[in-house]
């Protein structure tokens, strides 16, 4: 496999000098995201996120399995990320790069361990049967900001997904198909989203949503995951640069503002999609869900 | 219904295409010719690597089987000897399958094979990897029901209605009417196979006389498929036209 082409010294100096003059290569503000596009597939639970030139497709699917004996009352939820040579020839199948390991670890912490999804609601019969939910993240085009884009894709796909309904009679559970009963949405407790800050030590600058060139020049990164209520789910710092604690506090403030914008955007797209599916306004009658 | 193709949707890959037909949707990307790893390097020809990635989960033996089939077919159309000691990397990501796919009770790897081949070809065409010929491919399904004719490039719904099947066949032809690939599954005699093969050839390859092909194959009132080679030419033509418009304008 060829290695990723390293950025040349001239390009590096150019980006750094531009940053000293308060400019980014693509003319964005330091705390601006690239244009974000979110589209949903025909099926439930497929989200296609385009963040500038980065493109990530997340797909949520479900099957019925036996829960692990130590967690009888929980369902199973897995996030699977695998880079393919499609995004960059430097990615090899079956041999994860550092970026891939970091991505899956961050998604794990941000979404799974922060309990974004109520796994207890995936249980069908305690100790016998539960739903196993898996989110496959396909990185299709790579131009930096993979963590932010993947997190948006997974959260949007989870909110879009509908799982089949089940009827439980004693020890027997019947899974009802889409034709028999309208599938039901997952119970999502909160919506964590990641914002990555790239730190340039010499210029003392934090950039939001760096592209691939800027990612190669940066000295450090801080990944802040929070939900729109301002609860921080995790903060991770990578790279050798030392950072001022106050600057990190400032990062969380910017992150909160960004996360609010992003969640609003995702919700707007979800509503649009729901309206498109709900032609004629008959969906409410089909639903077997009880009002809480 | 002709397949839909969107060319070069990706920025990073050398050539890419999204392909949608009968609710099978596939994204293909080609990188090449690029540096090859020492252990895969061949002194007189290019190495071809095919990766098929399923929509859900990680690759299984089914994907590996498809990869070998695609590998041998594509190797025969890529001019491997003109780019020795390089790597042509083909990645095919399945984006969605029709819901009925798993319920048909037939070998599902055959159903998706023509679509994968077309996606790979389109991506190869736009990555400017030297090719010897183009390839078009089609699925023929022969149902058990007496009197029902063979189905040509059926959609999953049509297959659902016509099942069970005696046999299904996948044929791939190059532009000069040479058969490149044949995969068959089920019980069949030579006559049936020959009939299926002729039908497939008619749809895949362009007739010189310009006879409207696919007219004889009425599937539920609508003519089944238009000529696949013609479709391919149209796709390429529209793409080239769009790229050359700066020249045309002057």
TrEMBL record, chain A:
Q: Which InterPro entries match?
A: ExoRNase_PH_dom1, ExoRNase_PH_dom2, ExoRNase_PH_dom2_sf, Exosome_comp_Rrp42_subfam, PNPase/RNase_PH_dom_sf, Ribosomal_Su5_D2-typ_SF, Rrp45
Does the record bear Ribosomal protein in its keywords? no
Which keywords label this protein?
Cytoplasm, Exosome, Nucleus, RNA-binding, rRNA processing
Q: What is its main location?
A: cytoplasm
Q: Where in the cell is it found?
A: Cytoplasm; Nucleus, Nucleolus
Q: Which residues form the Exoribonuclease phosphorolytic domain?
A: 33-164, 190-257
Supply one GO BP term.
Answer: rRNA catabolic process
Q: Which Pfam families match?
A: RNase_PH, RNase_PH_C
GO CC term (a single one) = nuclear exosome (RNase complex)
Q: Which GO terms describe its molecular function?
A: mRNA 3'-UTR AU-rich region binding
Similarity annotation: Belongs to the RNase PH family.
Task: Give the protein name, as stated in the record.
Answer: Exosome complex component RRP45
According to its UniProt entry, this protein's organism is Lophiostoma macrostomum CBS 122681
Organism lineage: Eukaryota, Fungi, Dikarya, Ascomycota, Pezizomycotina
TrEMBL record, chain B:
- GO CC: one term? nuclear exosome (RNase complex)
Q: Specify the Exoribonuclease phosphorolytic domain's residue ranges.
A: 10-99
Protein name, please? Exoribonuclease phosphorolytic domain-containing protein
SUPFAM superfamilies attached here? Answer: Ribonuclease PH domain 2-like, Ribosomal protein S5 domain 2-like
- Asked if the record carries the keyword Zinc, the reply is no
Q: Does the keyword rRNA processing apply?
A: yes
- Give the primary localization class: nucleus
What taxonomic classification does the UniProt entry list for its organism?
A: Eukaryota, Fungi, Dikarya, Ascomycota, Pezizomycotina
Q: Where in the cell is it found?
A: Nucleus
Query: Which family does the record assign?
Result: Belongs to the RNase PH family.
| Keywords (A to Z) from UniProt | Exosome, Nucleus, rRNA processing
Spell out the Pfam families in the cross-references. RNase_PH
| Gene3D superfamilies (alphabetical) | GHMP Kinase, N-terminal domain
Per the record, the GO terms for biological process are: nuclear mRNA surveillance; poly(A)-dependent snoRNA 3'-end processing; rRNA catabolic process; rRNA processing; U4 snRNA 3'-end processing
Molecular-function GO term, any one: RNA binding
